[in-house]
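Hey, quick one: can you model this chain's 3D structure?
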Amino acid sequence: MQVVILCGGQGTRLRETTEHLPKPMVPIGGKPILWHIMKHCAAHGLREFVLCLGYKSFEIKRWFLEYHLRERDFTFRLGRPDQMEIHQADRDEEDWLVTFAETGEHAMTGARIKRASPHLRGKNFLLTYGDGLSDVDIGELTRFHKRQGKLSTVTAVRTPGRFGELRLEGDTVRAFEEKPEVTQGRINGGFFVLQSEVIDRLDDTTDLIWERGPLEGLAADGQLAAYRHDGFWYAMDTPRDHAELEKLWATGRAPWATWQGPNKVNKTAQRGHYHTPIRERA
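Sure thing. Here's the predicted structure for all 282 residues.
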């Protein structure tokens, strides 16, 4: 199953950092938050990614294009760039297939999904955001989706009521409300499993917002299931959020680092190779 990651937003509430970087490139422990999301997916066997690019897209492309030069030893014959040799690393490699889809700098989330759809194949795909970390069990999420027999499943998480809320009836979403005043305790945590037919409900109109018309329509038609996740989930929206994620990574036991296993520690954090947390202005 392919993973579609929305990577095109400007991250205006993180402007101190995103003035020079797209939000998915904001580092946690010296690696972009996007890398952390992809590592979590890969830990569950999902290694094919489609990145929906927009704001400062070349910074995302550059990071991946330079990945081996940054992470690995290499030998280079000056004047003969075709003879560069990249040496094997001692640690596990990210055996990922990554497609970079230019979906427009000003496109909204629904349009980005539609514009990236030519790169999709298969019956189902995973969709998530490039700024949210979780320890959700993607394998169990996928099995739940298949059992429900609906077109779509959203991971429903608990968090303070500053996001759009899901109104549930059993395991079915009956409505999707954008930032309600009264919270019932579950919100859209990303990590959707979608059947390919969902693409037919989208168009590439630049202002099409996935979380409004399309998602609300799926809920109204009884085609949006809710997978309840009570584990770790965190969205990086503000400098305070970024600082909190940096602190968690620095402990060596970041909850979202599922690729490390329950008994492993974060060696990068142990060595102290992580960025100083961003501090909010007074």
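One thing worth noting: The chain is about 25% helix and 25% strand.
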